[in-house]
Protein 1
Amino acid sequence: DFSNSKYDDLTFNENSNLIIIDINDSYTLPILTKEGYTFIGWYDNPEFTGDIVTVVNKSMKVYAKFEKVNE
């Protein structure tokens, strides 16, 4: 939930699973929930390659990766 004042510097675009971060401090990125999906983690690129990002301490974009749950 990004309504918490802790996340005032984060802009979340739910349609693209993108957060734009404009900070001068460090943030631990939240674990997201989305019905029918499992949250995999945050990445610094839309291809979801490389290491998962958990903490940011500079202005950057991060992308949430989800995988559809098999029912």
Protein 2
Amino acid sequence: AKPEERTALLSHGISEALNNTAMGLGIAVTCIVAHAILSAASKKQVADLEAFSLKLENLLAESAQGTAAAK
């Protein structure tokens, strides 16, 4: 192959590799952001559930003490 053709083929290959790299990085950054958002939402749900369960446990304990005191 002529040097001009080899240069054109090489530059095309490099261009394709750079385009794929840019696309991959874009997808990766998007996934990281989505993961951070979903992880934060999940942690908030867990915290809310733990707070509710603690309130329920306290309510049940108070109810049990009230029942025991009435007997």
